[in-house]
Design goal:
With 71 residues, the protein is an all-alpha fold. The protein contains four helices and no strands. It has a domain of 47 residues. 58% of the residues lie in helices and 0% in strands.
Length: 71
């Protein structure tokens, strides 16, 4: 896993706050942002995330938590 994939993974798990992820993404150049978008797209396809789960405020576990996490 490269540094960008680690950052996306940590953001997805809630290990890093969203504002930190936004600042990180905005600090990337255009080419790096495109690579991150591509990686994120592939992660979503792999996880079979659809539009219903793509927004944190609509996530079944709330606040961007994992839907498959236990009680």
């Amino acid at each position: 896993m490269d540094a960008q994939e680690v950052m996306l993974d940590e953001l997805a798990q809630g290990l890093r706050p969203l504002p930190e992820g936004i600042a990180w993404f905005e600090g990337l150049n255009t080419e790096e942002q495109s690579a991150v978008r591509r990686d994120l797209y592939h992660f979503c396809v792999q996880a079979r995330v659809g539009p219903r789960l793509a927004r944190p405020d609509r996530h079944p576990a709330g606040q961007g938590g994992r839907a498959d996490a236990g009680p």
